[in-house]
Amino acid sequence: MRSEEDTGSGRVPKVVVVGGGFAGFQAARSLARRMGDAVDIVLVSPTNYFLYLPLLPEVAAGILEPRRISVALADALPRCVRHAPGEVDELDLDAHRIGWLDPEGIHHETTWDRLVIAAGSVHKVLPVPGVTEYAQGFRGVPEALYLRDHLIRQVELAAVCDDPEERAARLTTVVVGGGYTGTEVTAQGFLFTKELAAGRGLAEVPQWVLVSRGELLSGLDPHLGRNADRVLRERGIDVRTHEQVEEATGGGVRLRSSGEHVPTRTLLWCVGVRPDPIIDDLGVEVDQGRIVTDTRLRVPGHPHVFACGDAAAVPDRARPGEYTAMTAQHAERQGRLAGRNVAASLGRGRGKAYKHRDLGFVVDLGGYDAAANPLGVKLTGGPAHVVARGYHLLAMPGNRVRTAVDWLMDALLPRQTAQLGLVRSPAVPLDSASPEVPQHGLGFPHAPGQASDPSSRATFPPRSGGSAEAASPEDSSPTGAR
């Protein structure tokens, strides 16, 4: 049964969710499950899938196919959620209006009664000379596919290279950043290139250099960092802690502390993330680029606006005076709570403040190595590996059987090493506001000049049975509880 607004118009309230990552996906699903057809939910996202980011290193390493960790929104969300493919380019909190560009460059816009900002994060690019020109990030499927092809190409070029110095550079990969992404992609990537090199008849073992400003996985349980450091070093990976890259060139990188030049053709930038740039011009209070919210995820001064995930600075009740970290666990939980609190603001149920309990973390180091601390229990090796994969299967909103089958095939068969060349380097620039989509004129961003063409503007259509436009902010009073 649909609810009605106090205006008596018969129009259901419209809720727009910005972002289809952990926070946005969970917010839309949580709200839809609570209110069903009593609310019109529009999710704006440049891709039509939810990306299970923790398994992205396994895509780059040829273990999983990209569609395994890309769960279609239409399959995983209730039917009352409508996906609007596009990138947000207008957001007026006072006028309750949002606009976005679809993949063909047509501008759409609509008004909203409630807004959930879950725009996520992009690469954090530091002012290091040469990084934007020569480094590659690792936040989306296009980057993972490009990296996989690039690693295969470098090994194959090394196999036919007569110059020992050039061969060594092609077989060397430098990863900057010792957090989750940098640690796991180094662990998985090394095993992948080692198998590649052996299969191409190379006697040399590829060299991977992991450069970390601090200890590996700093900020987490020291058990995880110590075991990750030990496993990587035992494999022969060159782990450089308390080190930074001073300059990147086409021939390699120069390290700051030692001044050493490391010849390489592959520089992977995993130093961290920053909130989506869309937040910069909203005129709200921010902390290090994140929207400051109260404990109920509401944006001060805008009672109909909620923020969650990497885009939000949510007070951490477990650590007074601090904000929650930018992790998938927080994003997922905050997304669910945002859906609940939006429903409460519309008269369905009661809102709650965000409070979390640390359930532990898992770090998959490739092969049968892993580190985990579920509920404080410290695990390594095989048991940790089982826990890590079990956790990922439970956390994924779909494709569990297909993912498990891929893991089984990887254990039984050699990895496929065809270089498809579908994603070229210009499509995955490091300094991109949308690392989840290839950057080219055929999709996002739109072709030049299209957005300014008045004929390319469109009003987002209402859900069947609704009015052509959402009500003005003055009309958006909460619905009665049913």
UniProtKB/TrEMBL annotation:
Keyword annotations: FAD, Flavoprotein, NAD, Oxidoreductase
Sequence similarity: Belongs to the NADH dehydrogenase family.
Organism: Actinomycetospora aeridis
Annotated Low complexity bias: 464-482
InterPro entries: FAD/NAD-bd_sf (IPR036188), FAD/NAD-binding_dom (IPR023753), NDH-2 (IPR045024)
Name by which UniProt lists this protein: FAD-dependent oxidoreductase
Domain FAD/NAD(P)-binding per the UniProt entry, residue ranges: 14-335
Pfam families, per database record: Pyr_redox_2
Region (Disordered) location: 428-482
